[in-house]
Amino acid sequence: MKSKDDKVVYGIYAEEERRRRSRNHAIAVKKGGYFTVSERKIVKRALIIFTVAVGCVLFAAWFLIYGCQSDWCRIAPVNVKPVFGPAPEDIAKLLPEAGFDERGTLPSAENDTNFPFILPAGFRISIFAKDLPGARVMRFDSKGNMWVSLTSEGKVVQLMMSEKGIAKKEVFTNLRKPHGLAFDHRDPDVLYVAEDDKVFRVRLPDTNQREKILDLPCCDGHYTRTIGFGPDDKLYISTGSSCNVCVETDGRRSTIIQYDTESKQSKIYARGLRNSVFFTWDYVFGDMVATEMGRDLLGDDLPPDEINLIKENAPLMEVGARDYGWPYCYGQNVPDPFGKDIPGSLCIGKEPAFIDVPAHSAPLGLAFVSEDPPGGGWPEEYWHDLIVAYHGSWNRSVPAGYKVVRHKLTPRQEKGYIYEGVEDFITGFLVDAQSPPDLSRGYPINVGSAYGRPVDIVIQPGGVMYLSDDKAGVIYKIEYTAGQ
Question: 471 exposed, middle or buried (CB, 10 Å; 0-12, 13-18, 19+)?
Fold first, then answer.
């Protein structure tokens, strides 16, 4: 039987034990006492989540800089400033605007300046239209008006030309990353628009009655969908990959799809194309030519981007489409194991690139120069050449691209082209490209900036070319004036 003193001693020990346990388990002290058990659990869980998150970020940063040393995962130093940083000046203020005469046509720009751009002798550049954020694809309708997709804005606009200048009308808004535009030359009042998940069409001028004609894979990876009618009157749709490098589970990814607007049937026309954002057809043979952006995470100089000659039927196969290599090989069928034990034999039978483009240049819009009457347009030495916009790198220690180039081609007697090299056509988008990289963070960050990033190209007879720029939000007009 316990005495009164025993009870007192027991009570003191109990109070000390309670306080000891409270000190061991309490995470913080609030006014008036300790957190309750439930409160302590909430705080503890929050701290665990925060600690794990910080650890993941630190590990990812360490891995990107130091931890990935094998060939398959070598990563270029961080370089995003020319892409995402502000332009050093507003390009629209540095160039003359294209003027209009009383007939509503666009004469040559009066100002001879090519600052800050450098063009070949005899060419002039001017601003055709501005205030077009995210300008991408350009197409002309039968009335001579230009349609432009503003992908990042979710809009498609119409630029109507008159003697007073250009009037901009927002025709479609709140779209899902609209990109491709196409007019059916058999029925020029029908406009086709590609969003990231579908293609729809409207009969102008009524733009409210949209008819969906085809569902597309969407919602991850490359989202630009470019469309165009070929010489065979079929509609072609490019769908980029869902990833940087992987084996796709959806057979429609990394392909060019052919769609018959009459039978409403579709098929895979070409596959193994990681991201062929733009394509066109040559004027001589009617062959499709497409640009393709190669994968990332192989360093500054690998793999090359590509320009491909797209051919329909696979050799020695009754069915199927030609395979252009991705993800198993790139360029001239160079094997790409992408971190796995994949045999180089998987590149056998794949189509090599027609032209290897410097890695990370990001080739986009392309157009062939057609023959013009003597003295009335493009000089003869440009005929049949391929003009290509290099959008520019985002992850290269020294930026690449940010220019428009001329690939010199000569048609063969029967079919195909003789490739005679490449030269710059428009440069000056990139500023301070050769500045020493900033090493203050332990890895190089190039200090250059960019006035803009060239995207789509439309070439017209008479020595005229239009060029969109999704960074500056403008459309340029380039003219050959030496023969005038």
Answer: buried
Contact 481/374 with Cβ under 8 angstroms?
no
Task: Give residue limits of the domains in the chain.
Answer: 20-67, 82-480
Query: What pLDDT is recorded for position 321?
Result: 85
3-state secondary structure of 66: helix
- β-strand pairing of 403-411 with 386-390: antiparallel
Q: Is omega for the bond preceding 373 within 30 degrees of 0, making it cis?
A: no
Which tokens is 81 given? 């400033």
Nearest Cα neighbor of 215 from 171, 179, 260, 266 is 266
Taking 50 as the pLDDT cut, the residues of the chain under it are 1-18, 20-35, 37, 62-81, 84, 100-115, 316-318, 441, 443-445, 447
| CATH for 82-480 (1.10.10.10, 3.30.420.40, 4.10.320.10, 2.120.10.30) | 2.120.10.30
In whole angstroms, give the CA distance from residue 222 to residue 217.
Answer: 10
Distances from the Cα of 415 to the Cαs of 7, 11, 189, 309, 483, in angstroms? 107, 102, 34, 12, 31
Per-residue model confidence (pLDDT) at position 75: 34
Question: How far, in Å, CA of 210 to CA of 220, rounded?
Answer: 25
Report the C-alpha gap between 20 and 15 in whole angstroms: 9
The DSSP symbol for 298 reads S
Cα(131)–Cα(309) distance, integer angstroms: 35
What pLDDT, on the 0 to 100 scale, is given for residue 328?
92
The answer to whether the CB of 248 falls within 8 A of the CB of 272 is no
Separation between Cα atoms, residue 461 and residue 182, nearest integer Å: 19
**pLDDT tens by residue, 377-432:** 889 999 999 999 999 998 888 889 999 999 999 998 888 899 999 999 999 888 76
Phi/psi of residue 57, nearest 5 degrees: -65, -45
pLDDT of residue 114: 38
pTM of the complete model: 0.76
Q: How far apart are CA 342 and CA 344, in angstroms?
A: 7
